[in-house]
Structure prediction request, 656 residues.
Amino acid sequence: MSTATVSRFLGGERVREVERIVQAIEALGYRPAVAARSLRSGIHYAIAMVVPDITNPYFAAVAKGVESVFRDTHYRLFLANTDESATTEDAVLHDLMHRVDGIILAPAAEQEETPLRMRRAGMPIVMVDRELSEKIFDSVLVDNAGGAAAAASHLVELGHTAIAMISGPLVNTPGRMRYDGFLAALAKAGIEPPREYLEVANFRESGGYEAMLRLLDLPKPPTAVFCANNVMTVGSLKALAARRVRMPMDISLIGFDDLDLGVLLNPPLTVIARPAEEQGALAARLMLRRLAGEDDRAPDRIMMPTNLIVRGSCKKPRAGQLPQRLQA
Amino acid sequence: MSTATVSRFLGGERVREVERIVQAIEALGYRPAVAARSLRSGIHYAIAMVVPDITNPYFAAVAKGVESVFRDTHYRLFLANTDESATTEDAVLHDLMHRVDGIILAPAAEQEETPLRMRRAGMPIVMVDRELSEKIFDSVLVDNAGGAAAAASHLVELGHTAIAMISGPLVNTPGRMRYDGFLAALAKAGIEPPREYLEVANFRESGGYEAMLRLLDLPKPPTAVFCANNVMTVGSLKALAARRVRMPMDISLIGFDDLDLGVLLNPPLTVIARPAEEQGALAARLMLRRLAGEDDRAPDRIMMPTNLIVRGSCKKPRAGQLPQRLQA
DNA sequence: GTGAAAGCGCTAACAT
DNA sequence: ATGTTAGCGCTTTCAC
Prediction:
């Protein structure tokens, strides 16, 4: 029996000697060589997942969601970590370009050429968490501006006016949107934070730590701080602990992204939460749809809602200033 | 100029017209087709990384370490998540088998056939965190027994005798070694915990939560608990909080694996820590050595030390029993 | 419904 | 040092 017949059978075509084929496959433990198949058909049965930091629990959860969807398909998942570097990302993308059928990407910056070129070259690309300025990609985002605004409103409603923010880089979507959304909501309440209350950090723990330290060292420290992502929140909390600043008595803190242990902190952390694993699964399903051939559909831009979880880390501001001992 | 010359140039051989070749490559943006190369040479330039749970910060860190090493090579990394299921793992392994040059594996159980067969078939396999009963693989482990023993000794030295353990599954290496190491150290101190003090759970948060609840509901609850991994520790802590058990006054808790926020808990968590990212990087380097051809070297079994970090969650046991309100 | 044969892009063996 | 050629394992015409 010819290899062509087996190939057709595997391809789902109608064949006569089904039994014999199945038997032979079993007996030999036959598995089509992916490399040969790729060479012939141009399909790699592989997807790239490119994230800035796999140790960020948010991206780990996204990865899990993506993985769980592709597990039931013939597609396997390449993982790449860019360390928030657009340069690394570029290199990785070029390398992976010729070995995958699609890319799920959380880009380091909104101004990038490579994904645009690859998209134009026909590569399906789905953005998660972040997107580019050109809105030509399928994307799974959350309402960053709305979430940040909810954080701002929460603080305002509690009576804060000296409100600071530790922001992520303004070059990527969540960084920029949370920054803008937060400030817009404050402005609507008639609050315009002084320049020194606006720390633009890097989404890293060390960035959050140092930014919080700078805020505490201000002549007039804020009474409330919004921290734009989970790992910077961890850094901020450590800075607070190092300076023995009591939360929420001395300062209120609200973070974007929930923390696994957030509920166990003392006080438990008030946060803006979002459905990370679902975002990953959704991105994977959008990718599957593109791969199934709907290649010229208009881009699907999905924005999921965030969720304010009020716990104990934000309270009314204390009457006076911060106690003397907090001043540098 | 022939394709063969270019191929040789790319292969690092000596050529005459280097300039023209480089120019042509630049001009065309030429990249060798990985599929064709694989088909011809049998090399895939891909490694599989198979872990039980990518959202476990330990494995996320391992993955980061692995990824960082392979980033500087031509190898790319497949990621697969098995959810601690040997069945899923088996399926994944078979699927990946024919598309990778090596596998970095944290197996769900110590009794598994598939990795043995694949190894015999010539597939380089490096174990991280866990290994199989047959010790024929390169592996990067930590001194689980020693770490667990250190935890036990710490509790004993503080004066505890009613000591419980929330263990992982005994079918995998860290589960078993931590269990054995902990009990051995207790035995050496003349302590043999009653059966109901030994909870065998599943390395999941829910498992830690429920196990801790059962311990608290005992007629005579333990005064100290050792929790065998990070995510179960989170569960345990939540159970403690739910029951309003005060730590360390009512109960002492020590966990295996540090937590990002461990230092911020109240009290800060005493833990057995280990170098996750380094373990990943090391595993990747062992893999690279195998790939470089040293295929018949004896297996390299590396055991890294753990590190007891004493913070505030373990103290002397209180005089009497747990207060009445803790009893179911 | 099936077999024969071409060809995907590369590399290694051989010839020059 | 370089060109020519065969063949890796598959899928897809093209004949039958």
Remarks:
- Chain A is about 40% helix and 15% strand.
- Residues 173-188 of chain A form the longest helix (16 residues).
